[in-house]
């Protein structure tokens, strides 16, 4: 079971999910409900940390 082998996996996944959703919600407030554009821009950044994602998109 991956939760026994790596006990921090589940909480880190949830924290990442919450940050992604906060950035997405801020994007929607600022730019409107075009989630396809939000995802296009987020994915165009490549592999970046969530702080960089937030700073770039919000």
Class inferred from helices and paired strands: mainly alpha
Quick one: how many beta strands? 0
**What distance separates the N and C termini?**
37 Å
**Overall residue-averaged pLDDT value:** 94
Round the Cα radius of gyration to an integer and report it: 14 Å
Helix amount: over 70%
Question: What does the overall shape look like?
Answer: elongated
Q: Would you identify the regions where 5 or more consecutive residues have pLDDT less than 50?
A: none
H and E string: HHHH
Give me the number of helical elements: 4
Strand content: under 5%
How many strands, which pairing sense, and closed or not: the largest β-sheet? none
- Total domains, how many? 1
Describe, in plain words, how this protein is organized in 3D.
This protein has 58 residues and is mainly α. The chain has one domain. The protein is 78% helix and 0% strand. It contains four helices and no strands. The chain has helices at residues 2-5, 9-31, 35-44, 50-57. The protein is elongated. The mean pLDDT is 94.
Task: Describe, in short, the structure shown.
With 58 residues, the protein is an all-alpha fold. Helices cover 78% and strands 0% of the residues.
Name a few traits of the molecule:
mainly alpha; 58 residues; single chain
Topology overview:
Elements: H1 2-5, H2 9-31, H3 35-44, H4 50-57
């Amino acid at each position: 079971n991956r939760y026994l082998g790596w006990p921090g996996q589940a909480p880190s996944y949830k924290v990442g999910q919450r940050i992604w959703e906060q950035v997405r919600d801020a994007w929607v407030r600022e730019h409107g409900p075009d989630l396809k554009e939000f995802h296009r821009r987020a994915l165009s950044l490549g592999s970046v940390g969530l702080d960089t994602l937030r700073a770039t998109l919000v």
